[in-house]
Amino acid sequence: MKKGIPALLLASALLLSGCSVLNREYTSVRPHTSSYYESADRSVLRAESYQDLVNDLLLLIGSQETDGTIWLYPTEGETLNAAEAAEQACQEVKQETPMGAYAVDYMTYDIDDSSRNYSQITLTISYRRTPEQMGGIVHTTSVAALYDLLSDAVAAGQSELVIQVGYFDHQKNDVYSTVKRVRTENGISDDEEWQVNFYPTQNNAGIIEILMQPQSDAQQN
Fold it and tell me: N or C: where does the chain have the smaller number of CB atoms within 10 Å of the terminal CB?
């Protein structure tokens, strides 16, 4: 990891996970303390459980890091296999969290177990979204704001709108209805194809992407 992670990301990265829409809880991050980091320049993250490891990955993605180092300490009285934990955490973040599903192409890692009291996990993260796209995500509490946001995006001539919602409960039909309403009000013909994508899934979306220009590499989830 080439630079330290800002302290505010300790909270914001968890928002990026779309905590409220997932079956498993992602909000159990302890308050920020200097002990969360293992080095003075904050280039190494610390994890003491599998949940910590998932949260660390979200921190790295939230700051758009392309590489990172995590020291995984075993929980007292328990043995946590670093390779198995890293594989599971990478898969979970990539497939089950909104930001992972939206932004990450793949993650690779190396394990160093030479230390007596921790395992070092060295990660490489490849993104399928640009920093500008990730930075342009609009945050809102619910899909109720979609109409105004999408109307403004059309008026501004944007080619895409990506929103992150704090609450989403099987509301894909509401999204489609809002998109149809905005298209109708702006005289957009059926020949102009738009694409709506939900991350990680249609029923439990934390991120909604609306592409207002055809993009062959966009995938419907």
Answer: C
